[in-house]
Amino acid sequence: MLSFESDYIQGAHPEILKRMTETNLDPHPGYGTDDICASARKKIREACGCPEADVSFLVGGTQANSTVISALLAGYEGVISAETGHIGTHEAGAVEATGHKVLCLPEHDGKISADELAAYLDGFYADGTHEHMVIPGMVYVSHPTEYGSLYSLAELEAVASVCRARGLSLFLDGARLGYGLMSRETDVTLPDIARLCDAFYIGGTKVGALFGEAVVFPKGQPKHFMTTTKQHGALLAKGWLLGLQFDTLFTDGLYFRIAAHAIDMAEKMKKIFSDCGIPFYRHSPTNQQFVVLSTETARKLAASVAFTPWGPHGSDAVIARFVTSWATTDEDLDRLSELLSW
Amino acid sequence: MLSFESDYIQGAHPEILKRMTETNLDPHPGYGTDDICASARKKIREACGCPEADVSFLVGGTQANSTVISALLAGYEGVISAETGHIGTHEAGAVEATGHKVLCLPEHDGKISADELAAYLDGFYADGTHEHMVIPGMVYVSHPTEYGSLYSLAELEAVASVCRARGLSLFLDGARLGYGLMSRETDVTLPDIARLCDAFYIGGTKVGALFGEAVVFPKGQPKHFMTTTKQHGALLAKGWLLGLQFDTLFTDGLYFRIAAHAIDMAEKMKKIFSDCGIPFYRHSPTNQQFVVLSTETARKLAASVAFTPWGPHGSDAVIARFVTSWATTDEDLDRLSELLSW
Amino acid sequence: MLSFESDYIQGAHPEILKRMTETNLDPHPGYGTDDICASARKKIREACGCPEADVSFLVGGTQANSTVISALLAGYEGVISAETGHIGTHEAGAVEATGHKVLCLPEHDGKISADELAAYLDGFYADGTHEHMVIPGMVYVSHPTEYGSLYSLAELEAVASVCRARGLSLFLDGARLGYGLMSRETDVTLPDIARLCDAFYIGGTKVGALFGEAVVFPKGQPKHFMTTTKQHGALLAKGWLLGLQFDTLFTDGLYFRIAAHAIDMAEKMKKIFSDCGIPFYRHSPTNQQFVVLSTETARKLAASVAFTPWGPHGSDAVIARFVTSWATTDEDLDRLSELLSW
Amino acid sequence: MLSFESDYIQGAHPEILKRMTETNLDPHPGYGTDDICASARKKIREACGCPEADVSFLVGGTQANSTVISALLAGYEGVISAETGHIGTHEAGAVEATGHKVLCLPEHDGKISADELAAYLDGFYADGTHEHMVIPGMVYVSHPTEYGSLYSLAELEAVASVCRARGLSLFLDGARLGYGLMSRETDVTLPDIARLCDAFYIGGTKVGALFGEAVVFPKGQPKHFMTTTKQHGALLAKGWLLGLQFDTLFTDGLYFRIAAHAIDMAEKMKKIFSDCGIPFYRHSPTNQQFVVLSTETARKLAASVAFTPWGPHGSDAVIARFVTSWATTDEDLDRLSELLSW
Questions:
Q1: CA angle B320, B323, B329 (to 5 degrees)
Q2: How far apart are CA B247 and CA B241, in angstroms?
Q3: Same domain for B169 and B244?
Q4: FRET pair for C146, CA 20 to 30 Å: which of A58, B331, D35, D102?
Q5: Number of structural domains, chain D?
Q6: Which residues in chain D have their CB less than 8 angstroms from residue C94's CB?
């Protein structure tokens, strides 16, 4: 069945499986101490313009989020997030399970505003009882956000500037980072992110890898981060499998090329929806598109194409998410177009 | 370089990579809700002789241990383990990170004794202050153990019987389960384990999979175990990758055949060591072999073959671990034999 | 200096100190296993009309909240609270430190609405991704609330009914329970609370005790609750000190009499504010009163009387909290009246 | 009934209750921000010879231990303790509940040896797999120990020296510190402890206070320690009650005088046991005495005097703990003597 359900419905870019197969029986030391991981780290540092960065490879996003957040926070600290942030909604309380509160700010198109962040921090420290409250220690942003939106460079710099001035660290969840970097509407580059954040990850699972997220600490990783990773059950025994994937993705710009393809497919998809008169729920410059379908259309469509229901919209319509990826083809979109022409 | 460093130095059985490649672009629903996972679960239930079992697929061992243990324990409970148990030594405090104490019993060849377990529990409840102490809620055993040894059926039944009588659950860490089941010295079968344990896992990472552990709850899984798994960062987005591996391993007995091969290789390796007059540190009927090497031999050997140093042995010798796996070849052992004949 | 800063600015009702002094050198067994605790438990059970209740004595409110909440929740569950609930605001993340998320509902006068609770739960289970979210396991209400307001019996029954229908437990934070029970505007009795809640506590610290909260489990306490209490550092060695205080408070209705006195004082205080034309920020039928003071008045007043600033109100006024207690005297209020007549 | 069950069977030194009664209705700000706490902190700093120390007042020992330990450890670190240490045995897993492992060293009379500590740390860092293990971050010692024994100054300096050289912090549990400082066999002073430790507490609960432990950080407390304390449910609302007790105890040397009295009583008790031919289980220079009683004697004695059974001793005898305190009288001992003369 045709599926736009998410960007993690298929395996990996064929180059990755090919290389995995070719090197399958070569022995490697475990836990990311091998040469392929070293090579992948080097290429990522170069892509980030950040020679002193530490890079670790973890398996998935929730794991990366809770491991990094708990590694960077003191026990009395919490992490600030937009109310729609993945860590506060769809990670089953993984951050709280490590003992930390997620402190919510209002979302604007899935993003937090630097001004509201500053106002929150001003208010917090002005409150005479703040020693009885969770101390804000970090800001979490997702880029692209859960709604496919993007911080502009000015917005990200403003958030980073507030963080720096108040001593908070800034962590960017880049589960779909490739799609953000290759959006036609962004002015944010990978070196910008490395310059502005204390930690971020380059998503692989949703951008061409079988699985894997490359966690980058531009200014160096927290002490004993490998032990912390192990403690969180996040240290893959066959670590070279992660290195191999990122080494492949960061050779000859593969990561960026396949992300750009997904953006092309998303733009084509947007045109199809527009042409059919299907309204957008939110504007998204990346690979996740949110449209409003009449209940009837949604029902009919669901018989032939998989998408994600995103909640009701008024009494007779629903919000639906359609996602492209590195693996979406022109044929997939042609079929979608046909289905919508019914 | 020749390597007997561990059983997770190479990728996956070629059948797995082949199938992964063939199905690479097929879309699947996420998080283990797909048909391949369903098929793998069915095959595992059959192999366990346990039609009502719940089966979940997790990525790695530490992750499986801390997720299952915390899912089964109440907040005031701890888990009993041999002092050499992996959870108490080489998992960076993953169990404690979920709030639970590992309660140690003496090890006998890496195993706990049912009698000592019973005596410990008797003593605990006889102690008038026991409400001030961590309540024992579960017994953890590894099979094979960290020393390659195995519980006999009688031993495992005795431990299970103590657990049942006192209301403790029994959890078996089967990271290397295949090698235990195919040992020439075991009388324990997979249905025995399913009959005796409340939870256990069938290790894939070390037995032919790229990665993955099949967690089995013979009597049904704890409520909301999927949410617990997500909370622990242990829910793989592309869950079918795990299902595919176990479905392959449990088709036509592949899991057992490749484990039996590793045992054949281990027996051959034992003979090589014996023939060279190299003494064993402990007797092991599985794929991990522990020998005593003079410092000189260890140094020379290390230039040509990778193995794991396991600590000093007296003043001029070391304990060394050599491990075979599904991927070990006769040629590997011939080369080892040559090297030792120097 | 005159102080209406809170209801925990003074020691204990003199009867308590008198009895503490009289029995000071009598030996007692520790940890609440003594006869005085037994007597206090009996009296509390009677006052609750609940002969099968378990009663434990803890030292303070945050401690009681995090101990009870974590004892009643499964690892994957969170606790629902009004956004103004003490556990989510002024307990420094104590609940999250035990691994659980506080799930916020809108506050209405400091209370949650049963309808909104039901709608939240409906929406939660209707969401196809809910297994990726924190499962709601308990509802927390404070009574009186942080704003001095009270649930009516109908409101509390409605909340309890939703909880019962969905399998959530209901926990009532009664840090100021006495003042709620003796309010002139309440129809909720202690037996009502015992009938409707799975757990609640009768606040002592703010209602005549030196310190102490009596945690009541009307249907029996969770297994090994003493061990859980110890684990949370909440088991007082000299437990009889807590029993003695509650035994005194629940002898001849002392708890209710002193709470009624505080309510009389609050009503007198309300009249003083009204007579001076000082507006109320919120209506409160209990011992906490919230008024709006011009910045000028607040500044002048602060020189002679202690109260709690509760944040700004517009550009030239502040919200101020004034609290009466069991220890407030007519003279205190006469002085306040004089100060306000300036 | 005559009781030597523990040193927390009675209330407080009468001076404390007198002062509590006298100041009962004086208003104070909460949470330890009052003048009496300030005065008590000053006196404790002076007694420690440590003008820059931070002093916090917590309610009980388990609470103090878990709060301080988790405040000083990084997430990946554990705390080293003698296998008989209170944190590892009788605190219901309070340290593990904060996510940290207790790493056990052998006990020698309840103490750890600096040489064994150094050897453990050497071995740890020499182990190539140590990044997979809990990193030792702190040493916990109790003084007096759970067996009443004491570190000599040389022993404590040796332990502190190992800690300093390896970057571990040193924490001393002084639940019975007064009795240790006034022992006739000690050369350790309070300023010695303040000089050698990173944190310690001066026990009040067992040495004349109603309740309370004064936590001292000689080199300054961890950032936001008040918030950490609140998060652990360990911040007493009426903090001045703790300050008042320690201010009284540290006025005119009361703490030391009453501890010296308990030591006098213990020496007298030892003579009584000796004179009756009752053997000691261990030598103790402090207020806890461990003797071996025949089962028959123990049974007869238990009818008239409370003591703590400490486990069996051979087949027909038991170990029994008898404890003196600030409140023990000559009459108590005369009665014990009579009972033993039966």
A1: 130
A2: 10
A3: yes
A4: D35
A5: 2
A6: 230-233
B210 touches chain A (CB under 8 A): yes
Asked if residues B58 and B68 have their Cβ atoms less than 8 Å apart, the reply is no
Does position D342 have pLDDT exceeding 80, yes or no?
A: no
- Report strand pairing: A135-142 vs A77-82: parallel
Chain B partners within 8 Å of A307 (Cβ): none
Residue ending a domain, among D200, D228, D253, is D253
pLDDT digits (tens, 9 = 90+) for B235-251: 999 999 999 999 999 99
Q: Is C176 in contact with C287 (CB distance < 8 Å)?
A: yes
Mean pLDDT value of segment B320-329: 98
Do C142 and C76 reside in the same domain of the chain? yes
Best CA proximity match to C306, nearest among C267, C273, C336: C336
Residue A55 half-sphere exposure toward CB, CA atoms < 13 A: 29
Q: Bridge partners of D292? A: D319
Q: Token pair of C206, please?
A: 């703010």
CB contact under 8 A, D90 and B133: yes
Confidence (pTM): 0.97
Q: Are residues A64 and A203 in the same domain?
A: yes
- Pinpoint the alpha helices (H) of chain B: 14-22, 35-48, 61-72, 86-89, 94-97, 114-126, 153-166, 177-181, 190-196, 225-231, 240-249, 254-275, 295-302, 330-341
Residue D341: the pLDDT is: 87
Closest CA in chain C for residue B69:
C75
Tokens of A96: 């709280």
Shortest Cα–Cα distance, C26 to chain B (Å): 22
CATH number of the domain bearing residue C266? 3.90.1150.10
Please tell me the predicted confidence (pLDDT) of residue B341.
Answer: 87
d(CA C167, CA C138): 8
Domain boundary, last residue among A194, A229, A253: A253
- Does D321 lie at the interface with B, CB-CB under 8 angstroms? no
Residue C189's CATH number: 3.40.640.10
Structure tokens at C318: 């502040």
Same domain for C315 and C204: no
Cβ of residue A235 closer than 8 Å to a chain B Cβ: yes
Look at residue A342 and tell me whether its pLDDT is greater than 80: no
* Among B8, B92, B238, beta carbon nearest to A237: B8
Letter string b/e over residues D28-41, b meaning 16 or more CB atoms within 10 A of that residue's CB: bbbbbebebbebbb
| Phi and psi torsions of C266, nearest 5° | -65, -40
Q: Do C136 and C269 share a structural domain?
A: no
Do A332 and A264 lie in one domain? The reply is yes
Looking at residue D173, its pLDDT comes to 98
Q: Give yes or no: residues B279 and B198 share one domain.
A: no
Beta bridge partners of C185: none
Range of the domain at B203: 14-253
CB contact, 8 Å: D306 with chain B?
Answer: no
- The verdict on B301 and B215 lying in the same domain is no
Q: Which H or E run includes D58?
A: strand D54-58
- DSSP structure string for D86-114: HHHHSSTTHHHHTT-PEEEE--BTTB--H
- Residues A113, A118: Cα–Cα separation, whole Å: 9
Residues B259-278, mean pLDDT to the nearest whole number: 98
Tell me which of D6, D10, D36, D224 to substitute to probe the interface with C (most C C-beta atoms closer than 10 Å): D10
Pairing of β A199-203 and β D77-82: unpaired
D134/B contact by beta carbon, under 8 A:
yes
- DSSP calls for B285-333: SSSEEEEEEEHHHHHHHHTTEE-EEEEE-SSSEEEEEEE--TT--HHHH
What single-letter amino acid sits at B149? S
pLDDT at D1: 82
CA quadruple D70, D73, D76, D77: dihedral, nearest 10: -110
Amino acid letter at C287? N
